């Protein structure tokens, strides 16, 4: 049995964290996958994200505090020697620096690093640091989208091969369902059109842009928001200021996300920055047409026959595009596209192949 250890910064609800859990769920039969979270502790993580309960035997928390923590490298070296993994798989720059160095010191055969959103490399200091880390640690590099790979080559001046492995979702979990049954679950009206959005309520996710776009849509169009975050109170206030509060439904954290998507007429991801997001794939797997902003690899998630994209931070154009999509019935169902191009099983097999002796040929 080969052991693979994924390393993430934290285990709070989010795209990278969901992806790491999926790689654990869909591991190959000859592999055991563990997940190391640099920050946090098991008890707090389980309280914040109940889904982790089914994975708790595979989770290890290092309880890292804020700031530079050199002793963490020593702890990780001991951990890696204890488990003797075939590969260490890091997600984002913090795990690359700490776990990448520890992997090399522990003599781990393979270090894989996935870059999920290269927009952070616009910070010259961070970019320089990561460039040096890659040159020294020599990880096998993966980007989750063609756009991310392009940004890595440009910003990191990277000559090493970069394999693009798109993020995937479980299309057997995210399935079409009865719209009216789903709406009843969340107390949503059955006689209006509903646009949905899911994600952390932080500035980078662009919720304010979507709420402003709702102004130009008919009163029979409502907005349902799944998730929470530091800007929730501000977004509620914005909806009140714009006279939209009765049309904007704040649903909070939702565990039953398939039902959320099934309740919608259209899904919108209004992000200001992204890597390759999972939520558009989840929505389309439920046969919900989708609009995203043209940031990162977002448009790479779209079914080309039914999906649309607009520039980021342009609520006027977003409103016009949403209205056209709601008014024009699309006979194309995006689920088939996700099954062929965005399923987690495809992603897991590609990562497994990358860890094999022939992986360099991918």
Describe this entry's structure for a reader:
Helix 3 (71-83) packs across helix 4 and helix 11 packs across helix 13. The protein has helices at 15-25, 42-48, 71-83, 93-106, 124-137, 146-155, 179-186, 207-213, 232-241, 257-262, 279-285, 315-327, 335-341, 344-355, and strands spanning 2-8, 31-39, 59-64, 87-91, 110-115, 140-143, 162-164, 193-198, 221-226, 248-252, 266-269, 290-293, 308-310. Mean pLDDT is 93; it is low at 358-362. The longest helix has 14 residues, at 93-106. The chain is built from 14 helices and 13 strands. By secondary structure, the protein is of the alpha/beta class.
Identify the notable features of this structure and list them briefly.
362 residues, single chain, alpha/beta, 38% helix
Strand order of the largest sheet: 3-2-1-4-5-6-7
Approximate strand percentage: 15-25%
Share in helix: 25-40%
Poorly predicted segments? 358-362
Query: With helices defined by DSSP (H or I, 4 residues minimum), what is the helix count?
Result: 14
H/E element sequence: EHEHEHEHEHEHEHEHEHEHEHEEHHH
End-to-end CA span: 23 Å
């Amino acid at each position: 049995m080969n052991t693979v250890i994924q390393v993430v910064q934290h285990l709070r609800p989010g795209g990278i964290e969901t992806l790491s859990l999926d790689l654990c769920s869909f591991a190959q039969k000859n592999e055991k996958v563990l997940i190391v979270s640099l920050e946090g502790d098991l008890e707090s993580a389980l309280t914040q994200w109940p889904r982790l309960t089914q994975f708790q035997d595979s989770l290890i928390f290092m309880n890292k505090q804020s700031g530079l923590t050199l002793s963490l490298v020593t702890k990780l070296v001991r951990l890696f020697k204890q488990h003797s993994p075939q590969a260490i798989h890091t997600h984002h720059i913090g795990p690359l620096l700490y776990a990448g160095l520890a992997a090399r010191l522990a003599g781990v055969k393979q270090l894989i690093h996935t870059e999920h959103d290269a927009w952070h490399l616009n910070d010259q200091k961070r970019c320089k640091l990561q460039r040096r880390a890659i040159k020294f640690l020599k990880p096998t590099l993966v980007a989750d989208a063609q756009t991310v790979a392009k940004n890595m080559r440009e910003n990191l001046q990277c000559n090493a091969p970069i394999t693009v492995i798109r993020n995937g979702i479980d299309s057997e979990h995210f399935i079409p369902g009865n719209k009216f049954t789903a709406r009843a679950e969340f107390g949503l009206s059955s006689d209006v059109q509903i646009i949905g959005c899911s994600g952390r309520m932080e500035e980078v996710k662009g919720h304010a842009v979507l709420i402003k776009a709702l102004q130009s849509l008919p009163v029979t169009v409502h907005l349902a928001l799944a998730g929470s975050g530091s800007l929730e109170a501000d977004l509620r206030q914005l909806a009140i200021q714009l006279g939209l509060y009765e049309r904007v439904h704040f649903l909070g954290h939702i565990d039953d996300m398939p039902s959320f998507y099934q309740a919608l007429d259209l899904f919108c991801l209004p992000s200001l920055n992204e890597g390759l997001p999972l939520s558009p794939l989840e929505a389309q797997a439920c046969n919900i047409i989708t609009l995203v902003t043209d940031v990162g690899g977002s448009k790479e998630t779209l079914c080309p026959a039914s999906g649309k994209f607009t520039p980021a931070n342009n609520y006027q154009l977003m409103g016009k595009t949403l209205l056209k999509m709601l008014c024009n019935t699309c006979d194309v169902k995006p689920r088939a596209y996700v099954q062929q191009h965005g399923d987690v099983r495809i992603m897991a097999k590609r990562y497994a192949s990358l860890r094999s002796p022939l992986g360099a040929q991918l």
